[in-house]
Amino acid sequence: AQSVTQPDIHITVSEGASLELRCNYSYGATPYLFWYVQSPGQGLQLLLKYFSGDTLVQGIKGFEAEFKRSQSSFNLRKPSVHWSDAAEYFCAVAGTASKLTFGTGTRLQVTL
Amino acid sequence: DAGVIQSPRHEVTEMGQEVTLRCKPISGHDYLFWYRQTMMRGLELLIYFNNNVPIDDSGMPEDRFSAKMPNASFSTLKIQPSEPRDSAVYFCASSPPGQGYNEQFFGPGTRLTVL
Question: In the A/B pair of chains, how many CB contacts fall below 8 A?
């Protein structure tokens, strides 16, 4: 069965600092990987996705993620965080069928 | 496009009452997903439809939960009878034609409180 682990429940960074959110997945074949963001009281919005090809994918809002098969990881990065990036971030994997399995999320706090 | 529409946005009810949550997917999307989000269990897929047909309902917690999709533009999730442990935010999402690996577009959610 597919699964996702986000080891960091809560992260605090200063505005302007770099950010890396960790995601590890478990799936037997090549996975389809996603990062979603959820602002308070809102639904989830897709930041980026990886299906195949270039292992470094660019997303919206200046985010990027790198797929590393050897480490079963798909970490999300941003070089300079803005206060508006404070939200909860979810990594997800899709295997067979059309089901997404989400991680437990990482809550990002940005200090000014 | 208005995006995925869910109603009501908030629902407060008493234990034992029937609750019906509604969802209108994005026009042209043929996948529809119902999720439940709680602090304890995170985001869980309850059921999903493809072309109005339920494909996988293995996430539905128990017989008290049922979901229907009578047409391509409307779906309901019903809880009867409701219990306090059903309190959660329920999201509906839709996805365009394909294998479902396309982006899932989420609605704003319905916050359900069962007293």
Answer: 51
Q: In this complex, do A102 and B42 lie within 8 Å of one another by their Cβ atoms? A: yes
The CA distance from A54 to A69, in Å, is 12
Q: Tell me the mean pLDDT in the region A62-90.
A: 96
Joined together, the tokens standing for residue A65 give 């993620």
User: What ranges make up the beta strands (E) of chain B?
Assistant: 5-7, 10-13, 19-24, 31-38, 42-50, 53-56, 65-71, 74-79, 88-95, 105-106, 110-114
- Percent above pLDDT 70 for chain A: 97
Summarised one tens digit per residue, pLDDT across range B49-64 is 999 999 999 999 889 9
Q: How far is Cα A15 from Cα A112, in angstroms, rounded to an integer?
A: 5
Taking contacts as CB-CB distances below 8 angstroms, the residues of chain B near A32 are: 101
Q: What is the mean pLDDT of residues A43-59?
A: 91
In whole angstroms, give the CA distance from residue A92 to residue A105.
10
The amino acid that residue A22 corresponds to is R
Check CB contact under 8 Å for A100 and B45. yes
Over residues B76-115, the pLDDT tens digits come to 999 999 999 999 999 999 998 875 567 889 999 999 999 9
The Cα A91–Cα B97 span in angstroms is 22
